Amino acid sequence: MNTTEARNQLKQYIEQLSPERLQVATDFLAYLVERESNEATEELLAISGFKEAFDKAKKDIAEGKVTPVDRLKRKY
Q1: Between the CA of residue 59 and those of 35, 41, 66, 73, what are the distances in Å?
Q2: 3-class SS at 73?
Q3: For residues 27 and 20, is the Cβ–Cβ distance under 8 A?
Q4: What are the residue boundaries of the structural domains of the chain, listed by start?
């Protein structure tokens, strides 16, 4: 089953749920989304030097040490 088919199947199931079960499904999906986000964060933090580079980038942005996108030159 591909992603589109899975989403369509979920929509069909959702339409059949009682309000109480719909809330349970919503809570479970929220849990899965948060878990996926946490796993992605942990993966990034495991990269050597990532946290330091990210912190520096946030500081540069706060201090205005950035180049606006419309001023960047494209190679192509």
Answers
A1: 28, 19, 10, 24
A2: coil
A3: no
A4: 3-68
